[in-house]
């Protein structure tokens, strides 16, 4: 009866089940925690929350730069098609069972998706594009173009990935360079054909385009044959790896394409349109609306140079070579530090590879760059639980982003606007017809050093430089001969001309090399050190005191001072802030040039402001020093007044110079005797600096005016320079009217009385 | 004697068998798991899966009805019908070739109105009955020519099923044949050498017999140490996710309907082929091992029925039924824990599905029927 054999059979069954039980023990009890972590990794995702960048306002709270919600309409291709409905449709069309159809359309565990599903999804996406375009009033084609651009991005990163994977393998047998270049050729050939041949793009199709991939594989084989034969057996390994990587990449792309959302269009759409779209979302499956902060400069080009603009980090010229600022920051851990509180290094690297930080905006110039650390804020994160398709089920934890701090600048937007407008030929009728004024004006509070306005003409609209930058517009800005991007207020170095005579006067009076009231005679020329120096009045000014010499801008008087001072002039210029940056911290600030004379004749020239350069900001600060009686303030755009240095000029030395400045405006024969300046009780000094350059046979000069108003109790110190005015037009005719307009605006903005 | 017994008392006799309770308990556990697997489906937002557990109730009821029905026939009736049943099953396999519906490249189903039937499932039962009938005729030591009939009986349906192709179901027939030959008294040396030959031939099937998708599944199974990127989202995906689900369950599980691998849709085919991954995740080692223990109890009780059986036919039927149930339970659970490559075999009484559920109940119905006949015999004798 073979009964015992029954026990053997049962024993065998027990053995098999014990085997499974042992394996269960191994998986669940011994390695349970590892699998629990794997399960967590499966479903927990970190969604980065980007902070809004801080806003920048002027001293009265008018917004110059701010982040506004920028709407973005996205599509998630995986959600476009209701797979159940699709399955039922396919089931009824082909007469197969519904369960089986569901299995088939279940978007596969790496299986090929049926062609019906692909085409149904593509049709669905087209419907969504059309519907969204109609409501938002955008071109459907432009959305398709946006998607194609996203595809290119993914492709680029994928091909980089491929080089990383394959190149070392290929190089095992030979040198890396050769392998890389060969691979690059191959990639170029394959990428286009594989991925982009599909319309409306592979991102929108339901799965990997296997047909295209297969074609690419054949092509790759052919291309690789030559490479392999030259490399020997080592290359076949590389080729296999390439093939694997390629397929995996394609699957990854398709998966990303299905489960992630892709931006269709972005913009500051009106609320009304967004509301209409939101109500229509029911009929647009897969479409979602999001908003993210985006930079905007509401006042356009107003104070553009002080304000600056933001952009991506990338290659920049630095010193001898080019430096990749992004990689620099990345290597220094700048980006990792910003997210290290909610992700580990590995997750960070994945995020970094996705380009998250490449899209970071940094202040490029101006206040945006100076206060970047304050303005940028810190990223936050949302830990979410997702299903297999990456759809969020619930939020586990939120680390809210820290918004950037808002910065109030010392400048006044209205004054900046008016200052920029003042650079107009209307005010300077002596300038030739069609002359475009270029130059800079700086207005300081002479007591604190607060920059009230700093303009550079011509300017630009920083909105044009926000990413995505219109390449042709940007190129135009960069190649414009007027150099609109140059912040002349701090980066423009100009010979100060006669305005520098005040430096010589102060130095000589302070050193006792010129007594108050001392008379020097001007005969129209000055001969010393084997050279004849000419005055601006051919027949001389006659007997000159320092006040008169400043008023008439007599060269001979100051030639004499230069000859008396020699090196001392340089030392004092330095003490008055020349030859060094002012400490404003504005990006691109130049020091100007202040050399020490090789010959005594150098100082004679120097005393009338030639052979030395200064920035408008330095000149404004110098004007402020005279205005406040000898304290060298630190110009600043934000925050409390920086400590001022005492220039060490005794009142007795200051007094004659201040009187001279007053006479320039108020005296008979003063170089800037303009009624409006008189009315404002302004004081100042004009300057006409020879550049040595010529245009059409006419030599070009810089026209200057520095000064302050009112002269008894100064409230504003100003410096104006106008570049390249033709010979014959002086500071008093070109720069002084502009300065008068700007000072007028100062009083209009800040009030007539204190 | 037994003929005088009423059909009703025959049914109630079967119900008294403790195995019946255990089987109902298994089905209840399966029902809960299917409920959990269809409770929240992220894949199909509008709830296609949501009613699976209700349908499962229908299948359990239908299966139990079949179970009860199979308690009724007398041994002679059943034995006489064996070849008929086998023949009908074989015919339906041929019908699949002619009328079957082709899905995903394989022809396995016949459509009967609203139902679709998988004849290969029922072929297992037909084979067991026919082999039992054939082998119960063996007397004394088996000779070589005695093997001819059982081999042919097994080879014909196997060939038809391999042709569908449905390798998993076809393979079930091998242990059935071996176990029944063994129980019928075939020389164990001959059987052992057959097993060795088959084991040696298995690797060759990888190169010659298996189709591409099958080769890939075996590859994915063999490369568990480190899957390639492509495998991770392709063939090995099910394997990895199932292991993660089971492993993350830990010792005591995450609780009913609380397994995230399940509810967030990471575990593939979880209401059918991978239901054991849901059990492992939500009930932990305690639940999964307990389920295995439950199976072992059912098998032990079944074997005890065979032990007590007076008739060789009954004994062989029980052995055949137990052998394919054991094989399916083992292959299915081993697949879920990464001990076997992925195949389409269901977990008896637990996986969702009509054919599988009815077949499982029918199998145990035959066992309970055999037991009932023994009882009847035992109780009937003294009354003579």
Query: What are the secondary-structure elements of chain B, in order, as H or E?
Result: HHHHEEEHHHHHHHHHHH
**How would you name the oligomeric state of the polypeptide chains in this document?**
heterodimer
- Outline the low-pLDDT stretches of chain B: 42-48
Strand pairing plus helix content of chain B: what structural class? mainly alpha
Counted beta strands of chain A: 23
Largest interface: A-B, 62 and 67 residues
Helical region count of chain B?
15
Structural class of chain A: alpha+beta
> Terminal Cα separation of chain B, in Å?
8 Å
Provide a brief overview of the structure.
The complex is a heterodimer of chains A (754) and B (384). With 754 residues, chain A is of the alpha+beta class.
List the helices and strands and how they pair.
The complex is a heterodimer of chains A (754) and B (384).
Chain A: H1 3-30, H2 32-43, E1 44-49, E2 56-57, E3 63-75, H3 77-80, H4 83-94, H5 98-105, H6 115-136, H7 140-171, H8 176-196, H9 210-231, H10 234-259, E4 262-267, H11 271-280, E5 287-296, H12 304-307, E6 310-311, E7 315-318, E8 321-324, H13 325-331, H14 334-339, H15 345-353, E9 362-363, H16 366-370, H17 372-376, E10 380-386, E11 392-399, E12 407-408, H18 413-422, E13 439-444, E14 451-457, H19 471-479, H20 488-491, H21 501-511, E15 520-522, E16 525-528, E17 531-534, E18 542-544, H22 546-552, H23 555-565, H24 567-575, H25 600-606, H26 616-628, E19 631-632, E20 645-646, H27 651-666, H28 675-679, E21 683-695, E22 698-709, E23 716-726, H29 731-750
Parallel strand pairs in A: 2-12
Antiparallel strand pairs in A: 1-10, 2-3, 3-4, 3-5, 6-9, 7-8, 10-11, 13-14, 13-23, 15-18, 16-17, 19-20, 21-22, 22-23
Helix pairs in contact in A: 4-5, 7-8, 7-10, 8-9, 9-10, 18-29, 21-23, 21-24, 21-27, 22-27, 23-25
Chain B: H1 7-15, H2 18-39, H3 52-69, H4 75-99, E1 101-103, E2 106-112, E3 115-117, H5 119-135, H6 148-162, H7 167-184, H8 188-208, H9 212-222, H10 229-232, H11 236-249, H12 260-263, H13 275-308, H14 312-336, H15 354-380
Antiparallel strand pairs in B: 1-2, 2-3
């Amino acid at each position: 009866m073979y009964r015992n054999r029954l026990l053997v059979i049962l024993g065998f069954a027990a053995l098999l089940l014990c085997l499974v039980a042992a394996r269960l023990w191994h998986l669940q009890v011994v390695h349970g925690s590892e699998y629990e972590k794997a399960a967590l990794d499966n479903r927990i995702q970190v969604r980065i929350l980007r902070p809004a960048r801080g806003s920048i306002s002027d001293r009265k709270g008018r917004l110059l730069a701010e982040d506004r919600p920028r709407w973005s309409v996205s599509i998630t291709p995986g959600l476009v098609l209701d797979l159940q409905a699709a399955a039922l449709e396919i089931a009824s069309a082909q007469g197969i069972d519904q369960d089986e159809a569901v299995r088939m359309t279940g978007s596969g565990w790496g299986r090929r998706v049926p062609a019906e599903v692909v085409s149904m999804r593509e049709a669905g996406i087209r419907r969504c594009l059309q519907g969204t375009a109609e409501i938002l009033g955008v071109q459907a084609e432009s959305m398709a173009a946006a998607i194609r651009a996203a595809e290119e991005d993914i492709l680029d990163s994928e091909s980089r990935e491929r080089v990383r994977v394959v190149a070392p393998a290929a190089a095992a047998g030979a040198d890396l360079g050769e392998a890389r270049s060969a691979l690059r050729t191959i990639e170029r050939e394959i990428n286009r054909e594989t991925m982009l041949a599909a319309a409306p793009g592979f991102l929108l199709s339901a799965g990997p385009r296997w047909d295209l991939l297969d074609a690419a594989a054949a092509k790759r084989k052919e291309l690789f044959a030559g490479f392999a034969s030259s490399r020997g057996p080592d290359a076949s390994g590389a080729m296999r790896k390439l093939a694997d990587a390629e397929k995996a990449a394609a699957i990854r792309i398709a998966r990303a394409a299905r489960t992630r959302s892709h931006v269709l269009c972005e913009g500051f759409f009106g609320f009304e349109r967004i509301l209409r779209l939101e109500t229509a979302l029911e009929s647009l499956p897969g479409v979602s609306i999001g908003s993210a902060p985006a930079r905007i400069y509401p006042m356009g080009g107003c104070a553009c140079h002080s304000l600056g603009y933001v952009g991506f980090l990338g290659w920049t010229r630095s010193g001898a070579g080019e430096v990749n600022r992004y990689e620099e920051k990345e290597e220094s851990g700048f980006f990792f530090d910003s997210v290290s509180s909610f992700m580990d290094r590995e997750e960070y690297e994945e995020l970094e590879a996705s380009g998250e930080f490449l899209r970071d905006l940094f202040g490029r110039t101006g206040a945006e760059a100076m206060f970047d650390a304050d303005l940028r804020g810190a990223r936050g994160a949302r830990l979410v639980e997702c299903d297999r398709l990456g759809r969020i089920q619930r939020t586990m934890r939120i680390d809210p982003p820290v918004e950037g701090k808002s910065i109030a600048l010392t400048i006044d937007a209205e004054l900046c606007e008016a200052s920029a407008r003042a650079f107009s030929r209307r005010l300077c009728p002596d300038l030739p017809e069609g002359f475009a004024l270029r130059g800079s004006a700086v207005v300081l509070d002479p007591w604190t050093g607060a920059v009230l306005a700093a303009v550079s003409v011509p300017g630009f609209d920083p909105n044009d430089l926000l990413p995505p930058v219109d390449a042709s517009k940007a190129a135009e800005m960069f190649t414009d001969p007027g150099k609109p991007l140059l912040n002349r207020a701090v980066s423009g170095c100009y010979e100060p001309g006669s305005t520098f005579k005040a430096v010589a006067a102060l130095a000589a009076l302070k050193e006792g090399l010129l007594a108050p009231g001392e008379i020097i005679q001007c005969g129209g020329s000055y001969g010393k050190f084997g050279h004849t120096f000419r005055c601006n009045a051919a027949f001389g000014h006659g007997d000159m005191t320092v006040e008169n010499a400043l008023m008439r801008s007599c060269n001979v008087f100051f030639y004499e001072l230069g000859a008396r001072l020699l090196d001392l002039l340089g030392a004092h210029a330095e003490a008055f802030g020349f030859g060094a940056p002012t400490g404003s911290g504005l990006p691109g600030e130049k020091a100007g040039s202040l050399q020490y004379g090789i010959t005594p004749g150098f100082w004679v020239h120097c005393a009338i402001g030639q052979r030395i350069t200064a920035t408008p900001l330095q000149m404004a600060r110098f004007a402020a020093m005279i205005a406040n009686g000898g304290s060298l303030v630190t110009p600043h755009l934000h925050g409390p007044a920086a400590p001022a240095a005492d220039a060490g000029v005794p009142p007795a030395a200051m007094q004659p110079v201040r009187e001279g400045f007053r006479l320039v405006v108020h005296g008979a024969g003063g170089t800037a005797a303009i009624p409006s300046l008189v009315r404002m009780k302004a004081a100042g000094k004009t300057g006409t600096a020879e550049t040595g350059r010529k245009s059409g046979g006419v030599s070009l000069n810089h026209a200057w005016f520095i000064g302050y108003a009112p002269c008894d109790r100064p409230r504003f110190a100003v410096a104006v320079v106008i570049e390249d005015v033709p010979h014959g037009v002086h500071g008093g005719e070109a720069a002084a009217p502009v300065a008068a307009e700007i000072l007028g605006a100062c009083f209009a903005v800040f009030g007539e009385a204190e | 004697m037994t003929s005088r017994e009423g059909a009703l008392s025959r049914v109630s006799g079967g119900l008294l068998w403790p195995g019946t309770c255990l089987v109902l308990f298994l089905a209840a556990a399966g029902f809960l798991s299917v409920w959990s697997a269809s409770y929240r489906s992220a894949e199909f937002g509008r709830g296609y899966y949501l009613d699976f557990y209700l349908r499962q109730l229908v299948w359990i009821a239908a299966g139990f009805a079949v179970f009860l029905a199979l308690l009724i026939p007398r041994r002679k009736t059943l034995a006489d019908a064996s070849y008929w049943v086998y023949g009908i099953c074989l015919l339906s396999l041929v019908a699949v070739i002619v009328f079957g519906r082709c899905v995903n490249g394989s022809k396995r189903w016949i459509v009967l109105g609203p139902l679709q039937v998988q004849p290969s499932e029922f072929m297992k039962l037909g084979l067991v009955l026919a082999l039992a009938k054939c082998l119960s005729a063996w007397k004394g030591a088996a000779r070589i020519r005695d093997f001819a009939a059982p081999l042919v009986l097994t080879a014909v349906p196997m060939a038809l099923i391999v042709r569908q192709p449905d390798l998993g179901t076809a393979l079930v027939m091998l242990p059935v044949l071996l176990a029944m030959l063994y129980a019928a008294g075939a020389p164990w040396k001959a059987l052992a050498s057959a097993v060795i030959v088959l084991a040696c031939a298995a690797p060759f099937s990888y190169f010659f017999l298996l189709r591409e998708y099958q080769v890939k599944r075996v590859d994915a199974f063999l490369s568990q140490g480190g899957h390639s990127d492509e495998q991770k989202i392709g063939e090995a995906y099910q394997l990895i996710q199932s292991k993660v689900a089971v492993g993350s369950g830990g010792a005591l599980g995450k609780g009913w309907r609380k397994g995230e691998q399940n509810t967030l849709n990471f575990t593939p085919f979880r209401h059918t082929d991978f239901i054991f991954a849901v059990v492992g995740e939500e009930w932990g080692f305690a639940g999964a091992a307990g389920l295995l223990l439950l199976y072992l109890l059912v098998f032990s009780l079944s074997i005890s029925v065979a032990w007590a059986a007076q008739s060789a036919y009954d004994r062989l039927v029980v052995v055949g039924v137990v052998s394919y149930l054991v094989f399916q339970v083992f292959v299915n659970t081993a697949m879920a824990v990464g001990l076997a490559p992925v195949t389409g075999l269901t977990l008896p009484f637990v996986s969702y599905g009509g054919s599988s559920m009815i077949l499982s109940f029918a199998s145990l119905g035959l066992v309970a029927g055999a037991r009932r006949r023994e009882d009847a015999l035992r109780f009937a004798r003294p009354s003579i």
